[in-house]
TrEMBL record:
Start and end residues of each Peptidase S33 tripeptidyl aminopeptidase-like C-terminal domain: 418-520
Region (Disordered): 31-57
Keyword Protease attached: yes
Official protein name in the record: Probable exported protease
Record's keyword terms, sorted: Hydrolase, Protease, Signal
GO BP annotation list: proteolysis
Lineage per the UniProt record: Bacteria, Bacillati, Actinomycetota, Actinomycetes, Propionibacteriales
Organism superkingdom: Bacteria
Organism: uncultured Nocardioides sp
Keyword Mitochondrion applies: no
Matching InterPro entries: AB_hydrolase_fold (IPR029058), Pept_S33_TAP-like_C (IPR013595), Serine_prot/Carboxylest_S33 (IPR051601)
Length: 520
């Protein structure tokens, strides 16, 4: 759902920044990944069948009857790109419109349809997720489906939300997410206020129309433009909230849905933050335990508690004195995000160990590199607007924000949930205080009554989306079917668990619904 980004400290259910796509950066394996065969773009049906393009109301007919004009992408001519037009405000369909960026990776075999994908965030560009399909999805899905990604409204290249310059974003992300002096508290307050005000000034009217509900409405326009009677969908992390919202709005259009790393859509911002704090603590403990298990001399200490204390002490030290990191410096915000980022996938624990070892020796560069990866910073600039979009989407979806003066009253419960990270998550409860616009959409009670079976995946030690959330979402959805993965890291599919992988692929390809409550 959200990255742990900037002093606002709203926390990520984010997959793409350091998930399967992050593998490209960490392991430099993109050159060896399987490629789709080059072929000219196939048009969508012309015209799509009337039953497919039937709009929920007549005023939306022009959007639903669009025909997509696919062309080879400039960055990779084996992929196909185009745009989809949608209204800024669905209550005013004859008003302003925006174009959503789309990317399609053609099926390696004979396609049976399109698999629309979303990587989470919110704020992650879905086009980049689709472009990395050969890393994200296994061959059975790559052969069977055209993988279609879209940048949700306000993200990527779809009328992106804009809040800060790159230099301002550097300071925002590096700021202390756990202020512990009056001066740091004032910096936090100033940052929250300026970020929200700047978002409104630089983005304009669109800022109030980047809700999950509106993005779900956009997905139904996309379904129609793809010529699909029903939507086949794979959503990860926040993408599960987006998928569940779609299922509530359009239950009759739900085809085969996989919601991986699921979000409990019934929880408010405070409860989400509290439970996610516990999830990251669980993941950090698992990381330290692994260090103890694989070596007789773990650099963090001789016990899990000692290792956690080493990490806490390190963050405190960086707060007092930033570390040199090449031509920059590692400040405490960067150090925090650099530690959090590799917890999303146990394959990256080696990178965390290397970065922490360097940090403890006085070199902040490796942790800064991980922080940059997490926040999409490269060569001195931010390659997407995920940090800004996360703030806008989540604060519109749930604008609940407490005054800074009330944050300390939250410390005891949050530190009980996460002794290492709890106060950061508590401060995040004040993060939406700078938002100056409100959503025009009413909140939904998500049940998706009448929808086809929806596959919900959860992982026992997922840091960002605790297993309990998947269990709750599967129970809330009338047709939810739960599959649990026993393991570490964020999300379940293509994480070296064949039980999960076969369940997902048999379901998406053959329509075989696994038994509810399957344990893998």
């Amino acid at each position: 759902m959200k990255k742990i980004v900037g002093v606002v400290a709203v926390v990520a259910l984010f997959l793409a920044a350091i998930g399967s796509v992050g593998l490209v950066v960490l392991n430099t394996i993109a050159e060896d990944s399987p490629r789709t065969s080059s072929r000219p773009p196939r048009p969508s049906p012309t015209p799509p069948e009337e039953s497919v393009t039937e709009a929920p109301e007549p005023s939306l007919r022009a959007f639903y009857s669009q025909v997509l004009a696919w062309k080879p992408c400039e960055s990779n001519t084996e992929h196909h790109c185009t745009t989809l037009e949608v209204p800024v405000d669905y209550e005013k369909p004859r008003g302003e419109t925006i174009d959503l960026a789309l990317l399609r990776v053609p099926a390696q075999g004979q396609p049976t349809g399109s698999l629309v994908v979303n990587p989470g965030g919110p704020g992650a560009p879905g086009t980049e997720y689709a472009a990395a399909a050969s890393l994200v999805f296994r061959r059975p899905l790559l052969e069977q489906f055209d993988i279609v990604g879209f940048d949700p409204r306000g993200t990527g290249r779809s009328a992106p939300v804009d809040c800060f310059t790159d230099a301002e974003m550097d300071d925002y992300i590096a700021g202390d997410p756990d202020p512990d002096t009056p001066a740091e508290e004032q910096e936090f307050i100033d940052s929250v206020r300026s970020f929200g005000a700047s978002c409104a000034e630089r983005t304009g009217e669109l800022l109030g129309h980047v809700t999950t509900i509106e993005a779900a409405r956009d997905m139904d326009v996309l379904r129609a433009a793809l010529g699909e009677e029903e939507l086949t969908y794979f959503g990860a992390s926040y993408g599960t909230k987006l998928g569940a919202t779609y299922a509530e709005l359009f239950p009759e259009r739900v085809g085969r849905f996989v919601l991986d790393g699921a979000v409990d859509v019934s929880l408010d911002n405070r409860q989400l933050s509290l439970e996610q704090a516990a999830g990251f603590e669980t993941a950090l403990r698992a990381y330290v335990q692994n260090c103890l298990d694989v070596t007789d001399d773990c650099f963090l200490g001789d016990s899990v508690e000692e290792g956690l204390q080493t990490i806490s002490d390190f963050l405190d030290a960086v707060d007092q004195q930033p570390l040199p990191a090449g031509d920059r410096e590692l400040r405490v915000g960067n150090a925090f995000y650099g530690i959090v980022a590799p917890l999303y996938n146990s394959d990256y624990w080696y990178a965390l160990s290397a970065a922490l070892t360097a940090g403890l020796e006085g070199n902040g560069a490796p942790l800064l590199q991980l922080s940059d990866l997490y926040t999409s910073r490269e060569d001195g600039r931010y390659t997407d607007n995920s940090t800004e979009a996360i703030y806008a989407i989540n604060c519109l979806d749930d604008p609940t924000s407490i005054p800074v003066s009330e944050v300390p009253a939250q410390f005891a419960e949050f530190e009980e949930a996460s002794p290492t990270f709890g106060r950061v998550f508590a401060w995040g409860l004040a993060g939406c205080g700078g938002l100056t616009v409100t959503s025009s959409e009413e909140s939904l009670d998500i049940r998706a009554e009448g929808a086809a079976p929806i596959l919900v995946l959860g992982t026992t030690r997922d840091p960002a989306t605790p297993l309990r959330w998947a269990e709750a979402l599967a129970d809330q959805l009338e047709s939810g079917v739960l599959v649990r993965r026993d393991g570490d890291g964020h999300t379940a599919y293509n994480m070296k668990n064949e039980c999960v992988d076969y369940a997902v692929e048999d379901y998406l390809i053959e329509g075989v619904v696994p038994e509810d409550g399957t344990d893998c």
